[in-house]
């Protein structure tokens, strides 16, 4: 069994009688109310600003009577601070596990210990593994296989592909990948998410770009206009959330002044060139 360390993930544990209610009332996803951490599906979620922009995102799963959430290291301090603020008088203990635990990725076999199935919509990424630091000595220190897999599947990650407070949940496909619970009550940024769903005003969506000879942060150009920004590049392939209406000729898309190939994820329900009505 091979587990790859994901060094850019920060882990937090939420415990106490009000932990589930707190998270379910604050983030977008359908947070699980039970589980033993022995392979149950983790929930995708995002913490939004009141304006609907993603401040943090990751997976949530139950284990040992608590909820375990991972976020990108770049937003960990802000996430911790905000969740303590939202906690108010709720009976919730929030433990920062950045020094004591690590997050890993396994695909060839189900790992031992705390693990949750990493499935987003129809995409099966394998397992999210969680272990104390002293139990991760044999983990592979190369996370390129994970990023190669997620980029090929069209799964965008904050910190790798876009910064905090820059993208809407729809921009990275969370509405399609089951990272938004449209049936539950209000949460931070819910009005924006609901409006984009019911009015169909999501103009930006993830695409897969290959044949890239340029660094992350390069502009995706189409018809002389910028359509998006390239995220993390692995083996010449990357993701970008692009303006669909600007990709009218896929063969003419360039990055760094050179032509690239553009494709939609297999889970996409949108089309290149799609014109979306402006939000009112």
From TrEMBL:
<feature type="domain" description="CAF17 C-terminal">
    <location>
        <begin position="203"/>
        <end position="269"/>
    </location>
</feature>
<dbReference type="InterPro" id="IPR057460">
    <property type="entry name" value="CAF17_C"/>
</dbReference>
<dbReference type="Pfam" id="PF25455">
    <property type="entry name" value="Beta-barrel_CAF17_C"/>
</dbReference>
<dbReference type="InterPro" id="IPR027266">
    <property type="entry name" value="TrmE/GcvT-like"/>
</dbReference>
<dbReference type="InterPro" id="IPR017703">
    <property type="entry name" value="YgfZ/GCV_T_CS"/>
</dbReference>
<dbReference type="GO" id="GO:0016226">
    <property type="term" value="P:iron-sulfur cluster assembly"/>
</dbReference>
<protein>
    <submittedName>
        <fullName>Folate-binding protein</fullName>
    </submittedName>
</protein>
<keyword id="KW-0809">Transit peptide</keyword>
<dbReference type="InterPro" id="IPR045179">
    <property type="entry name" value="YgfZ/GcvT"/>
</dbReference>
